[in-house]
Amino acid sequence: MIEAVGLSKRYGDKLAVDRLSFSVKPGQVTGFLGPNGAGKSTTMRMILGLDAPTSGTVTVNGKPFRQAAHPLREVGALLDAKAVHGGRSAYNHLLCLAQTNNLPKKRVDEVLGLVGLGGVAKKRSKGFSLGMGQRLGIAAALLGDPKVLMFDEPVNGLDPEGILWIRNLMKALAAEGRTVFVSSHLMSEMENTADHLIVIGRGKLVADCTVQEFIDNNSELSIRVRTPQLEQLGAVLAGKGGTVRADGEDALVVTKLGMAEIGDLAFDNQIRVHELSPIQASLEQAFMELTKDSVEYHAAVPAGKEAAA
Ligand SMILES: Nc1ncnc2c1ncn2[C@@H]1O[C@H](COP(=O)(O)OP(=O)(O)OP(=O)(O)O)[C@@H](O)[C@H]1O
Prior knowledge:
The chain is of the alpha/beta class. The chain folds into 2 domains: 2-217, Rossmann fold, CATH 3.40.50; 220-280, 2-Layer Sandwich (Alpha-Beta Plaits). Helices cover 34% and strands 26% of the residues. The chain has helices at 40-47, 71-74, 90-100, 106-114, 130-142, 160-175, 187-193, 211-218, 230-239, 259-268, 283-291; strands spanning 2-11, 14-24, 29-33, 55-60, 75-78, 148-152, 179-184, 196-201, 204-210, 222-226, 243-246, 251-255, 275-279. A hairpin with a 4-residue loop joins strand 11 and strand 12. The chain binds adenosine-5'-triphosphate (ATP).
């Protein structure tokens, strides 16, 4: 369990993390989402005691992580996969970590097997691909068999096979009852991986809920109506306050009116309807909606290329 209470971090004029309070529970994957610069890495560094909070507190299993007697046995973290001595072999890198943390040597072979690096254990990590480097970082995180795991953007730059592997690993670790906290700005990835979400924007908490709640609370339900009387139905629905746009030759997408309302209006006006279905917004759409005011860096759109409203 990770618990933050009123956690803040200021760098000069910049309030990178602004009074964050949340808890990350065991037995589930908790996604930590936010646009670039939202404060995710800063929060993770404070959890690990690598940065001191300006105010507030954060504890891991009830105490500040800096006070942990056996840090690697309590928390495994993948913050920067490149933070490996490139001249060392994967085996020696892990052995060094194991020895300085009083962990048994046999654990090195176990974690190398777990992450699928057994065959290249004696090779220097300098020649590792990005995916192999990520696996080595994860092997290091798993070395102490910790109950709490934190991954900062673990799928960055990975191919689909690597992404699937990390996704399944995180789910398996959570299913073993561990606390799994993973940051990402890839919404689609979190939709597939996380059970619970903590979302921040400009350092502030903007949501703390399940993935489904997040989608339900932050997106507008759209309804697709297929009808051979497109124009008639469009006019009726717009007249009753619906926002209507055409979707192909024979369908409309409607917001601001409910499904029953649309069906009843069609019936009252003797308009035939061939299909009436809800369109579920994706997590990505919900995230864009919720954080649109807290995105730090907006890309400029070249003149004349603005998206049509
Ligand atoms: N050491 C530092 N000194 C000054 N400013 C910092 C420092 N570290 C982070 N910041 C600033 O704090 C804010 C939050 O940064 P942080 O890296 O925590 O965000 P993030 O959500 O992890 O972003 P990203 O998704 O881009 O990794 C940013 O505006 C960043 O420029």
